[in-house]
């Protein structure tokens, strides 16, 4: 290896003292901030290089860097085989002593200073010392790369690269002696900043605190074995005290030159954590404990929440300004402990009041702050109790759920009487009340609580509570009233001519809101029964606002409850489509047969297992002769095309139109089959007794009374003056009803086809009976399905499994037990011998 010639071309080897005297002059200029020129920098570097590569007079050879020696070889000993030795121990010692003298001198200058004076002195002289040490490290680069590295590789203690030697000297001879004064001064400045007072520049504090990070190595450790300088000679740097040559190196805390010590970042932060961070965190927590306690005693909770949020933001900024980034998480945790966790009970007490006042912004702030409290709550030192886990949102979620449930119950209670007392029951008022409560608190969850999953679940639970069991269900003595009213509301939306009709996108949005309420209903099977009943009337009477909207609603139900839930509803639509084709073929049949019907006749053939149409024994009627021909002709056509099928006519679902020929204006009357049978009698006579009408039409007396009452109320039929004055609740058999020859009405098209009360009651009873029957079948099917899989199962587990699997309703334990007994009678199950609470499946 060829060596660089000495600066100026000299070939003689200078003695250590001569060389050091010249190098020290340059070092003095650097640390005195007087600066050095490029030639001076290179002269110093070359002198050190020449010394380290000097000829050993005893061996008359040039020393060369050698491979690593074994531990058994004497350090600095001559190689008897003609090798060389490393030179640098004496030079390193002189540099070490010089740095110590400089730092001790700086230390004396700081003695007696406190507070801001000490911190300003620290900042000024530490910044200068650190910057100058970078330049000195560059000058001694060859010593670093050879002698220092060799010593470190061999494990020698207390040997550092030059830059690190300077840092360690500052640490041992300046910082540690003044530690007791520096830390209180730093804490005082930070507290003054928290109180809003003017302090030193943040940049000053950052440099001082970063010093603790950069000095994060143990003094008794050797140099960094991992540091390795680049090979080759340094290029001269530009003049000035900050210039340096040689290869670049990285430094902890963003420092300048010099090779850093190896080790993880966690190890490097140990000094910073012990000397600064621990006390900083303790004093921060104590400061906020005192401040929060005093502030809450004099101000409102909402004002405190705003202040706490502002304080947390200030601490985040403080970490970015001058505290090391590793402290941020620990600092915020301690702040939240003092500012939030210690006062959670106060927040919880205030939470309902904020909900009452609709303080959305304050609620959002409370949510954001409490959501940060996830760590264990540390017990006070005086208490000495174990730490208890605290989650700031747990209690808020519970309070929110209870609050929404209470407000929902109150809202429903305020309209319950009006809903049940109104004619036909005001389903719209009831559903709108429920939606109003849900919409209000859903928006609150969305805005204030950031749509947090736990608050969404709390809202769902609260809605289920007040929707399924409330004051209205108590007054009606029926826990299944909510699904019935929701089905009625849906019918009003989807029926033509309803006062609740909306159109277009608004209708689609309203149906989405209906599904929102539907989601919370426990008895979904009850809704299905009532909905199918109302749908059947809309389809039979062609009253649907749109088939597309009807299909959209069924799709929503299918998405929520599955395919089986809507199978019958879809079958109803299929029957209507098939009936259209059937009527077309029937008209062709009539035309070919030559049997003129004499009137427009349309019929719908419906599957009895899909449609909720009840044909009771009391629903019969004698068809007028004008209509009888239509029925007989269709019977003949249908039996010819569908052999083996039986038709049953549901007269209570039939309707028609009659035109008055006895009045000045021709009125079109929309009437039921019963009303047609009664009114067609007046084509032969102008008055009949009730008894005569009953004998001719064969209508059940209870039904006939309501049919005649509608016609009398519409003033198509009139009573004698004496009978009208009697105002009896029912018409006597001998009461005579005459056709009103002077009938007048503002409308030319009059709808008299309103549902009879007796029919409504029968349908209600039928629906309730079908619900109970279907529930029994579903429970039994679920029991068999579970037992077929498990083979054996204890009673309690079987009951729990059935409850979890049935989604359309929540069966009672008594219902499940009753159906278990039924399956035992049918020999699907048996009780296990010797274990009465255990069942076995029988294949």
TrEMBL record:
Q: List the biased-composition ranges (Gly residues).
A: 252-263
Q: Which domain of life is it from?
A: Eukaryota
Region Disordered: list its residue ranges. Answer: 226-264
Where does this protein act, in terms of pathway?
Answer: Protein modification; protein ubiquitination
The residue ranges flagged as biased composition, category Low complexity, are 226-238
Key word Ubl conjugation present in the record?
yes
Q: Which InterPro entries match?
A: Cullin, Cullin-like_AB, Cullin_CS, Cullin_homology, Cullin_homology_sf, Cullin_N, Cullin_neddylation_domain, Cullin_repeat-like_dom_sf
Residue intervals passing through the bilayer: none
Q: Which SUPFAM superfamilies match?
A: Cullin homology domain, Cullin repeat-like, Winged helix' DNA-binding domain
What GO cellular component is one of the record's annotations? cullin-RING ubiquitin ligase complex
Q: Which UniProt keywords apply?
A: Isopeptide bond, Ubl conjugation, Ubl conjugation pathway
Domain Cullin family profile residue range list = 481-712
Among the GO molecular function terms of this UniProt record, one is: ubiquitin protein ligase binding
Q: Does the keyword Ubl conjugation apply?
A: yes
Pfam families linked to this entry: Cullin, Cullin_AB, Cullin_Nedd8
**GO process terms (BP):** protein polyubiquitination; ubiquitin-dependent protein catabolic process
UniProt-listed PROSITE patterns: CULLIN_1, CULLIN_2
Family membership: Belongs to the cullin family.
Family annotation (PANTHER family): CULLIN
Question: What is the protein name given in its UniProt record?
Answer: CULLIN_2 domain-containing protein
The protein's organism comes out as Macrostomum lignano
Tell me the organism's taxonomic lineage. Eukaryota, Metazoa, Spiralia, Lophotrochozoa, Platyhelminthes
